[in-house]
Amino acid sequence: MRYRHWGIASLLLLVAFGAVADPPPNRQTELETLLYQDCGSCHGMTLGGGLGPSLLPERMARYDVTAITAIILHGIPGTAMPPWSELLTRQDAAWLAKQLKKNSPTP
Ligand code: HEC
Question: Is residue 107 part of a domain?
Fold first, then answer.
């Protein structure tokens, strides 16, 4: 019983801070594949840059997770960066954004 209440309390805390929960582990694996294969086709196989700029943490430092999430979902109009909202949920995009901000987003 007590544990159950803690669960609800932490859920409320998450909601209060506007945090988006991580997708389940199997979805995370799919998203990692998408990151290196699909995003990598423009941003470089190791995300170091190609047609699109580097997505490595040094460059991502200029954006917060919310901004990167929005870029992924809506793309950058007028450029080759496409919107991903048909394929990715906000939760997926937020998780990818968090991965990009991490120091070593290796597969
Ligand atoms: C068809 C090619 C293409 C694909 C696929 C693509 N991008 Fe991009 N992306 C671009 C281009 C080109 C830009 C730079 C647009 C500009 O001129 O500002 C960009 C910009 C970005 C930026 C902003 C980078 C910055 O420093 O300004 C982020 C973040 C980003 N892409 C993430 C992603 C992610 C994550 C994926 C996969 C879900 C993805 N992109 C897939 C072409 C692509």
Answer: no
């409320």: which residue's tokens?
12
pLDDT value of position 6: 59
State if residue 82 touches ligand 1 by the CB under 6 angstroms criterion.
yes
Which two three-digit tokens encode residue 30? 């799919």
Distance 35 CA to ligand 1 centre (A): 11
> Residue 17 pLDDT more than 70?
no
**What confidence tens digit (pLDDT) does each residue in 24-45 have?**
999 999 999 999 999 999 999 9
Q: Is the pTM of this model over 0.90?
A: no
- Spacing, Cα 19 to ligand 1 middle (Å): 24
Flag whether 9 is in a domain.
no
Ligand 1 close to Cβ of residue 39 (< 6 A): yes
**What per-residue confidence (pLDDT) applies to 86?**
97
- Distance separating alpha carbons of residues 27 and 7, to the nearest angstrom: 22
Q: In whole angstroms, what is the distance from residue 107 CA to residue 105 CA?
A: 7
User: What is the span of the domain harbouring residue 93?
Assistant: 22-101
